[in-house]
Amino acid sequence: MIKLFFAEMDKFNEDEIIGKWVELPISNKEIEEIKEKYVLHETRTDIKNLEIDEYDDIEELNEFILKYNKLRTYEKEEIEAIIWHLELIKNRNRNFSPNDKERGWQDCCYNVKYVAT
Questions:
Q1: In angstroms, rounded to a whole number, what is the distance separating the alpha carbons of residues 18 and 77?
Q2: Given this model, what pLDDT does residue 93 score?
């Protein structure tokens, strides 16, 4: 499940938060309407490790949830583990410094080993 709260652009620019919650998947027509009038403000999901921010593309999220909903339980768990691993790498690269090189890669390898078992 992915739920997104879209704030009306006009009101958002006036520091008011008026909008609507949408649960994906939605139609292409609804996506176009949202893109014209709204800005992504808040997200909720029950997919482990999935982080969504206001810059994510609603069309890609919609396509993702359409495919995700067709998966078996064990396949969903594998996807969640992959997402967790990719977030780990992204966060390591963002906060990585030369002084942390040895410790950082050891921690990363330990975590990958944990996910694989």
A1: 35
A2: 66
